[in-house]
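Continued from yesterday's entry.
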Amino acid sequence: KKEKVEEFISKLHPRNSGHDLIRLGPEFDGGYLVPNDLENIEACFSPGVDIVSDFERDCSERGMDIYLADASVESPVLDKSQVRFDFEKLFLGSFKYGEFITMDDWVASKVSSLSSDLLLQMDIEGFEYEVFLNMSDRLMRRFRIIIVEFHALDEIWDRHYFNLNNRVFSKILNTHSIVHSHPNNSGRTYNLNGVEIPRLLEITFLRNDRFLLV
């Protein structure tokens, strides 16, 4: 129903965290706005490797360890002489099998600390929904900043897909709040019942305890 869709959309309105937003990565595709609250983040986990990796390079320059994963490419476009990074030729999924690994298993295999803050940047072509539903609450709370490109949001008029989206966003918004959202410039929008929805939406979340403004 239209009112259910509009109620869901209202949850996606950004909040002012009190931190300025800065851009990491290139000016166009592959760059993201994040809150300027990056000090003492131990590592950036970035599943989904693109033809550019400037975002990860910028995170490395801010002292983060870089971990990338994508079974569809041989290696990220990064120079190991300039950026220290770890790459796994694996996909992220809801359980470990074949070329897939869970987010909890991946992080546990790379970071020895159980309490340090992390950053997650994820663009994995629709698998983000099952990854979030599978992720432990403990790991969710370790990600100070989460940046995700959500796919196929124009399918939200389908009841089953709506329920999936609602569960995923309810889980994320239990610990984090949206500080920025932007439709992907290369993605189309879908208009039904007077509601225009982008197919691809890039969202930046900040963990609730990091907000300077209530």
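--- second protein ---
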Amino acid sequence: MSPSAHLEQTIVEALEFRGIGLHSGAPVTMRLLPAPAGSGIVFRRTDLDDFEIPATGRNVAKVSYATSLMRQGVLISTTEHLLSACIGTGIDNVIVELDNLELPILDGSALPYVEAFQRVGIKVQRRRREYIRILRKVEVRENDKFIGVYPGDGYSITYEINFPAPIHRQEFTVDLAADAYGAEIAAARTFGFREDERMLRDMGLIRGASEANAIILTRTGVQNGSLRFSDEFVRHKVLDLIGDLALAGHRILGRVVAERAGHAMHTALVS
């Protein structure tokens, strides 16, 4: 590992994304701005007098089908894909400006962010990166759901899921220290079952979901197109987990194991 791998990083220049929120369906413009060393990832609501919410565990709001942040009643929703891309590509400091409450879902994965970071470049900063080194195991259990983090070299994740057909059981392990994020995780898209659509919409969710930003599943297979990976579903769960654990405030040095977990359990581990 090169000496610069232990230094903080930001993007070289500003980036802009336009789209709709997965759950709100609301149009949103988002700009990512380079940020000074030591500032972390900070969200800024330009429609609310530039109100700022740092991406840290103390600001985690309701978590069910997405991970949201809240401070003084101001909400930022569905943060996990962008946070995942930042951790996966080694970006420590960035200001995220958006003019609505929910980040754009884009294509349902983190790939548009990774490609944009590569396009403008990543800048090494003159500050040593701080880590959370796991010294003893921490586990969270809830019925058949489980997540734990253990001492280990680098940052590895093993995730197991078990869904109804056509997904069934899938397991995936990735070592983020091996720069595997861009090739193995970033392109994995969010997914949902067609039969759950009415229930979720009645709950005020997935109003922006479409075949352009999610894998739509029936009991017999994928309704829209083909998969990017044969095990794309578990890889997307790993993508979400990386984003949720970013709320710990620093990159983790340790080994994470999850079984049938979700956003609520991911953020419970952060707590």
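The chain has a mean pLDDT of 95. Helices lie at 80-89, 111-120, 181-184, 197-202, 232-245, 263-270. Will compare against the first tomorrow.
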